[in-house]
Write a structure and sequence with these properties.
The structure is a single chain. With 331 residues, this protein is mainly alpha-helical. Helix content is 48%, strand content 8%. Helix 8 crosses helix 9 and helix 8 packs across helix 11. The longest helix has 30 residues.
């Protein structure tokens, strides 16, 4: 019997069709298993990449444990890089595929980490937002204005901490955010200040001086004790940092060393010229400085200095202080 040529090709056609079908099903299964969204519908959620933990394995584990991805290996393929993700917060949902999530977190976060260090003045904090958020001069000025208006104090009311802040948040709202954190952290100290009959504004003023003057956390109780001694004896404080605050940034930084001429600046912040505390704090103190003012080291010293190693040396009288100057600063 003769076989039509077309009939000879039918088995081959079905074999090829079967192979392609299997390949297609395998691709479909592979795509669904490794890359598809865990859910059909889901609301956007905040996913945070912590500071200092920009590690791909950590990110994959967090996404998997929180239910954003089905497969960690598949997400690694979708991401396609090791160091292309920024720390911060991203809006993603469980209805997004691995490819969509990878694209999102390779972009810019909608919230970024901002570190405010102890001892910064408000202008320095404003400069951080200029750098991190790209603020204009107008937004920077708004930040300074709002800081001056939100409290009885123009300075010292922002708690040094690490913040996660939306990049589109207004300067006014950021001021409120920082001030709210200050109130939360300061509340326990406020109660103790009341017990000791110390005004909260006085506490923050002295703490700001301690923050700028101490060589470190260890020094703070001693510096606080000396400042209390001078205040209670009616002496001028003679603190360089208050003059630095009054002088501002003349091109060498906000806290550049003072000159002889700087000591003649006629300002209520000049504690070489005027007795008592300055009208406002000179910086934003941290917990250690605030605590040191409430629990100062008992001492008879009225003077102090730091040597080149930032080790503190105190003296009970001016003659002994001059000897320390000769011994530790002129040799």
């Amino acid at each position: 019997m003769l076989i039509h040529p077309g009939q000879k090709n039918k088995p081959i056609f079905f074999v090829i069709f079967g192979i392609l079908l299997l390949i297609g099903l395998a691709i479909l299964f592979f795509s669904n298993y490794f890359f598809s969204a865990p859910q059909k519908e889901s609301e956007p959620e905040r996913f945070i990449i912590q500071m200092g933990i920009n590690n791909l394995d950590k990110i994959k584990n967090d996404l998997y444990e929180k239910g954003f991805i089905k497969n960690k290996f598949g997400f690694g393929i979708a991401l396609g890089c090791f160091n292309c993700v920024q720390e911060g917060a991203y809006k993603i949902s469980k209805s997004m595929s691995a490819w969509e999530i990878a694209k999102t977190i390779k972009g810019d976060p909608y919230m970024v980490w901002v570190i405010i260090k102890e001892g910064y003045r408000k202008e320095q904090i404003g400069e951080i937002f200029v750098k991190e958020f790209g603020w204009s001069d107008e937004k920077y000025d708004e930040f300074i204005k709002e800081t001056n208006n939100i409290s009885a104090l123009d300075e010292g009311i922002f708690f040094p901490d690490t913040y996660l802040i939306p990049v589109d948040e207004s300067p006014s709202d950021i001021v409120k955010r920082l001030y709210t954190r200050f109130n939360e952290k300061f509340e326990p100290f406020s109660k103790e200040a009341i017990n000791q009959n110390i005004k909260w504004t006085t506490l923050i003023k002295i703490a700001s001086l301690v923050e700028r003057e101490a060589g470190g956390e260890i020094d703070m109780p001693l510096v606080a004790g000396i400042l209390w001694n001078r205040l209670l004896q009616g002496m001028k404080l003679d603190i360089d940092a208050t003059i630095q605050y009054a002088r501002g940034d003349k091109g060498d930084g906000w806290w550049a060393p003072i000159s002889v001429a700087d000591k003649k600046i006629n300002s209520p912040y000049n504690t070489y010229m005027y007795k008592g505390l300055p009208p406002h704090p000179i910086a934003n103190p941290g917990i250690d400085a605030i605590s040191a003012v409430l629990y100062p080291e008992k001492t008879d010293c009225l003077y102090y200095l730091h040597d080149s190693s930032r080790e503190i040396h105190c003296a009970k009288d001016y003659e002994s202080h001059k000897e320390n100057i000769e011994k530790y600063l002129k040799n």
